[in-house]
Amino acid sequence: MTQKIIDIHPHIISPDTKAYPYNPLGGIRSDWSAERPFTFEQYVEEMEAAGVSQAAMVHSSTTYGYDNSYAADSVCRDPERFVGVYSVDIAAPDAVATIEKWRRRGMAGLRLFGAGSTVQTDGRWMIAPETYAVWEHMAEIDMTVAIQTTSIGLPVVEEILERFPEVSVILDHLGRPDLTDGAPYAKAAPLWKLARFGNLFLKVTPRTFDLSEKSPATPESFFAKLVAEYGADRLAWGSNFPANNGSLKELVAQGHRCFAALSEADRAEIWAGTAERLYPQLVVATLDKAANA
């Protein structure tokens, strides 16, 4: 039986800088977006070659800031296969209205960028009082919030999980844990500490695969530990393509290698099952397509 695969972390960049001008968060554009600017059409070719069925397209904040236009224009071209994960200034007075505007253009998830290659903050702005209306709205509409951060921001993520337990939060790249000590991965204690929050999900990407393949870490020991701590139904795969080097097919192959020791049921959850619960619009689109066939 062919494994269904949903990608919840691809990025796309348009060559048309007049229609889609660059305006990166923090004023610094990410290296990958300049070096490997794949368009929506190129991503579709990559996903078909890799056997990826659907995707939650993640707007590139390090290219376009809060202007989600290119991702929105792209996913609306094929809503049976794509939804969007967009970025919004959640402290703005009209943030809820802005989210509703983007929802009408394929938005199925919100993404907050706290720390990464171009920006390093603890992300405390994510939980300032002026953002509470957005978090409450996320709970009301059952929309997943993805958070991009590193260890510097995990205390803030913990506060968010405690304050807003009805909001599903997915942590990009697992928050980039330290796996350099190998099993049982004591240095990744901040990640294991957060497992007690049932509303926290983890996005497993090639960044995680790379860390797990550097000795003394091994994919067999790390992913077994990850599933034991969180459960496969709280883990979802995202390609991080093209920010990670390699074709999408190669990144999928790396995932198959790293997940090889997991059960078939666990692999099915990570490749697609969890994604369908985080972004149920993908399931609705599939059912609608079947009904109209």
From TrEMBL:
InterPro entries: Amidohydro-rel, Metal_Hydrolase, Metallo-dep_Lactonases. Residues 6-280 form the Amidohydrolase-related domain. It comes from the Bacteria. Belongs to the metallo-dependent hydrolases superfamily. This is Amidohydrolase family protein.
